[in-house]
Amino acid sequence: MKAKCLWNNIAFCLILSCVLFCLSAYAETKGGVELIMSLDKQEYKKGETIAAEFKLKNTGKQQVYINKRFFIPGEISLSVIAPSGDSLPCKVSYEPGLPKTDYFALLLPGEEIAAERKISINYYFDFNEPGVYKIAASYQNKYGSELGIDAFKDKVASKPVTIKIMQ
């Protein structure tokens, strides 16, 4: 009887662990906002443009103001892990300054908004080493109150993507 109870507890813990692991594989959602990063393909030749598209989606039940500027570095931060396992440094550093009022958009539940254009991440990172890279993005807006806008300011992370740089 005790052995059966022990096995039931072990089985329950394993199932719970699997469910939690599967849920953690999806993009992080906070305050009803999800960051989605997508690339046009998974394999690139060395030196080829790696264009990323960024979207914010309101997955909550309330409307939310977001900053749709999508500046890197700024609202968007990228983390790139090289095939060697090293974290690549961002080549660009500047303070983007205050966004204009029209950079803010009201997203109703279920709505999403994309950056106005795809962003070449080669401009920010060197993808010189052939192999597999892991790329993750996060979004955090710190503006709005200066303009009288109660904007979303939590930090959200995208689901990581992997790409392969060919020789």
Structural summary, described in words:
The structure is a single chain. This protein is an alpha+beta fold. It has one domain: Immunoglobulin-like. The chain is built from one helix and twelve strands. The strands form three sheets. Strands 1, 2, 4, 8 and 9 form a five-stranded antiparallel β-sheet that branches. A hairpin with a 2-residue loop joins β1 (29-30) and β2 (33-39). Mean pLDDT is 86; it is low at 6-29.
* Approximate helicity band: 10-25%
Total of helices? 1
Looking at the overall shape, the CATH architecture is Sandwich
Tell me the series of helices and strands, N- to C-terminal: HEEEEEEEEEEEE
Q: Which spans have pLDDT < 50 for at least 5 consecutive residues?
A: 6-29
Number of domains: 1
CATH topology: Immunoglobulin-like
How many DSSP-defined strands? 12
Q: Tell me, what's the shape?
A: elongated
Describe the largest sheet.
Answer: 5 strands, antiparallel
* Average pLDDT, all residues: 86
Instruction: Supply the helix-strand structural class.
Output: alpha+beta
Distance between termini?
A: 61 Å
How much is the radius of gyration in Å?
A: 20 Å
Classified by CATH, the class is: Mainly Beta
- Beta-strand share of residues: 25-35%
